[in-house]
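Action item from last meeting closed. Structure (145 res):
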């Protein structure tokens, strides 16, 4: 038996099949289902949701849009330089602990010095390559469609 015609002029047809999955229904429809009342909602197909997700908002990074960009770049450059100087100090301390542990027979100090030297070298690599890493992944991300 076809569904009864409604008095409201809805552009969406009523469905007489099984209810849609939980995440496609509104809170009002879910509460109506819980109370065993008839539903009057339409669930759009999954393709409509995917088309909305694929919409291109047209946003891309652009320099000069906000005031203070030069100051922000200067601050970030200074933080990067501070980090590199701190890594140089950490590497010097770690190498000293490694040498002290080796010459005194302190295996724990020697191992800690080695770990510190490797961590400091990795941090120096990350700080030095930060600009290249960010630009690489930004260019890679801009190719996603």
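Sequence:
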């Amino acid at each position: 038996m076809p569904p009864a015609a409604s008095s409201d002029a809805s552009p969406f047809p009523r469905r007489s099949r099984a209810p849609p999955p939980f995440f496609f229904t509104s809170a009002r429809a879910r509460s109506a289902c819980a109370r065993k009342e008839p539903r009057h909602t339409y669930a759009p197909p999954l393709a409509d949701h995917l088309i909305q997700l694929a919409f291109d908002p047209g946003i891309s990074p652009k320099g000069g849009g906000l005031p203070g960009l030069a100051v922000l770049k200067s601050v970030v450059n200074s933080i990067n330089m501070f980090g590199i100087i701190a890594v140089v100090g950490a590497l010097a301390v770690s190498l000293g602990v490694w040498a002290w542990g080796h010459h005194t027979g302190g295996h724990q100090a020697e191992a800690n010095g080695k770990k510190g030297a490797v961590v400091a070298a990795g941090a120096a690599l990350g700080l030095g390559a930060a600009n290249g890493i960010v630009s690489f992944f930004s260019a890679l991300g801009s190719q996603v469609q």
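Note appended to the action item: Residues 69-104 form the longest helix (36 residues).
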